[in-house]
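forwarding from the other thread:

> can someone predict this with 3-(2-carboxyethyl)benzoic acid?

sure thing
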Amino acid sequence: MSSTIHSVSASPVISSSPGPALFRACYAPAAARDAALADPRTLAVFGFSHGQPPCADPRWLQVPLAEHGPAQIEIWQGAGKVEHGVRDGVRWSATDAVLFGAIEMDEIDGDIESAAADSYALMSGFLTHCGFPHLLRTWNYLDAVTEGEGDQERYRRFCVGRVRGLRELDEAALPAATCIGRFDGVRRLQVYWLAAREPGLPLENPRQVSAFRYPRQYGPQSPSFSRALLPPPATGLPLLQSGTAAIVGHVSQHTGSLTEQLDETLTNLQSLVDAARLQRPALPATLGAESVLKVYVRRADDLAAIAARMAELPGAPPFIVLHAEVCRAELLVEIEGLHG
Ligand code: 3EB
């Protein structure tokens, strides 16, 4: 927006009308996929459970996690026409202000560390040349995330490889992130992201130790992500909340109790909203209709109970519930959010 105020002008140079949102995210029935992709404003469409016909559009990504209830898709849209393409194994789309990218890389002989290093090196190289150098948010999906003992655990190897692939590790500029396990037995790393022309503002959760400062007991390389990130205003993106679980300090809470873990997780998500509102007071004060939540549940038998409790939340935030493996064996549920 122009910073010049034409106070004597007859025409309303500075309009208070919000106009079309620069970015919006929503869930929709899976049958809406092709219509969503036909819309020139669509930045990305995600499908979850298997069953969607394949589609070569670079804006389409299938993350094979079984979902509770009827099949849904997640749709991201900008306000204007989106460009898209494929370059050097990176699928991308972009508005004027936001870039979406995705990489899917097969592990060679189950080597998740190398797949992570190669994926993040590819991403880093792409970002430096595409005009959107600032990584805001990443999503990482891999098979069998907690398989392997001690420092050989696949999640810990992923964390090592991720740092190897990043050009530089600036702990003051880490993206928000999700890292989740699939149960499909396919040794293929899926990484997708949002990037911008200007940096965002990473936020930490006062209730939690920063993940990048986790003590050695959790692995040789602490996880490289921020708890949430406020995107630059020009993007129109909401608050980006990382995958959030029942961790206080650095310690998992309520081992064995699904409902207590869910409540602790929601308390952590609210704590991130509170932290974000110190920077941007106009953000909605609580999770609600202006949030979009994705709920990952470890045990298939728990999906219905979690969905029922989510449906009773005040403010009725839109959500989907996916069957997925959280990075610590004792954690039964994890939730990520878009807010505002
Ligand atoms: C946690 O809070 C749970 O390694 O990118 C959540 C979000 C988790 C992102 C990542 C890991 C990651 O430590 C695990």
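The two ends are 20 Å apart (CA to CA). thats all i got for now
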